[in-house]
Write a structure and sequence with these properties.
- The chain is globular, with a radius of gyration of 17 Å.
- It has seven helices and nine strands.
- With about 250 residues, it is an alpha/beta fold.
- α1 crosses α2 and α2 runs parallel beside α3.
- The protein binds 6-phosphogluconic acid (6PG).
- The site of 6-phosphogluconic acid (6PG) has 11 residues, from α2.
Length: about 250
Amino acid sequence: MHDTSQNVRVRRCETGDDVARAAAAAFVEAVVAAQHARGRASVVLTGGGTGIAVLDAVLRAPGGIDWSAVDVYFGDERYLPPGDPERNEVQARAALLDHVPLDPARVHAMPTLDEAGAGSPDSAARTYEEVLAANSPDGTTPEFDVHLLGMGGEGHINSLFPHTDAVREQDRFVVGVEDSPKPPAARVTLTLPAIRRARQVWLLVTGAAKAEAVAAAVGGAAPVDVPAAGARGREQTVWFLDAEAAAALPAD
Ligand SMILES: O=C(O)[C@H](O)[C@@H](O)[C@H](O)[C@H](O)COP(=O)(O)O
């Protein structure tokens, strides 16, 4: 089902740098507001150039965030060895996490490829589901305040690619992927039901190569065709777009 009545906003920026700065400022505001309201904030980070640029911009202008009361989760991960520079966690640490006084126990990285070769994306996904449940008020997932998402040119978000079992998943909150069309093949990803647990879902998208998928997703495509179309926040969904990514949207 694709409910277009939910609160969806499009935030048009000029350049990719403007997207990063606007999303970073909104991120700081949302984290501070969550901490004021509930004493803590739970955020889900994403990889990709735009997602990491936002973290870099947060580091440069962190406002009044109390880093000791932030819980960090990841939307997906490339199932690679622990320090691999292609891992989203490694990139997020380099951009932001290693430079602010987070409580290390509150940074919830996805399990990774075991050095001994044991495990699998599926077992890692099941372990991460347990982590989410353990930090949940009701045995499901934490109440994520903000879930950041990048988007690929064909509309993928996290490691949810078009026409895959992962994007069709309706029950589990985390699944393993063995055959990602974008390398590496092995990944672990939050599913659409997990994304939809977030109060705010923000899609950070830049570049002309994304324009058609943006227009399809905002226009109400089926999530199995354009996964980003299924990414909805409980309170709000915001598209942060540069001019090129917004080019195929109607002018209003
Ligand atoms: O896991 C991956 O292969 C990437 O992280 C990928 O999912 C990325 O987030 C999007 O393709 C958007 O990337 P850009 O923001 O760099 O366009």
